[in-house]
What does this fold into?
Amino acid sequence: MDKVKTKTKPSQAILVAVLFVIALIQIFPLFWLIQFSLKDNNEIYGSNPLALPMVWRWGNYTQALFSGGLLNYFLNSMFYTLITIVVAGVLSAMAAYAITRLNWKLKKFSYTLFALGIMVPLQAVLLPLFLVLNNMKLLNTYWALLIPYIAFAVPMSIIILCGFYGSIPKDIEEAAYLDGCNIYKVFFRIILPIVKPAIATVSIFTFLGTWNELMFANTFVNSAAFRTLPVGIFSFAGEYSTNWGCIGAGMVVATIPTLIIYCFLSDQVQSSIVVGAVKG
It folds into this structure.
């Protein structure tokens, strides 16, 4: 046994070293962005752009949040993202359950229709969506972004949830029906708790897709009152001069919610991957 343990130690050390290097590579861009956000243009364009700031310019964050209107853009992005996650999550959970667990004539056609929705590129629907929203007088409103965001989040969510619903034994539902539960109690009290990891995974994908979206937000909304965070950061670039420190501060602010969401839901996502691998 001692010989076996001594043989495995070098391989474990190599594995730890490789993982440590990969972790450094992954963390370095975040470190560089933070120190980039605390510099002025002279230091950024200096001889050593990777050096720590000579003067820690926390005023870049104050200028970006308040003078640049970044706080308003941040709140708008939070609003769009939360509404999209909730609405798309509820619609996807119910639609996927109906497609996977209930017997009706058009369920295969419905699944195919949602699957085709994933294949449609955003660029292909940009002009038609603009014309439709313009005719409905919805441009420069919250609806101009909420409708496309929810519509594009639902297909992917349904595909993911259908895979999880299909792996649940039907005996669970049959036993619940024998105990007197109706379809709503079975769905909300039994099925939803089982697929919580999948819902967490769907929520993260929806969050990333909505939070980082730029093309729709830059096309359908011109008013600063409805502008999202990526568009607001993009607008910091001036025609003749650009305060890159403020842009870096805005990018750090935009990154923080993503890190927080992952910290809270990472366990759920990892468990969903394990469950999917075991059941697949």
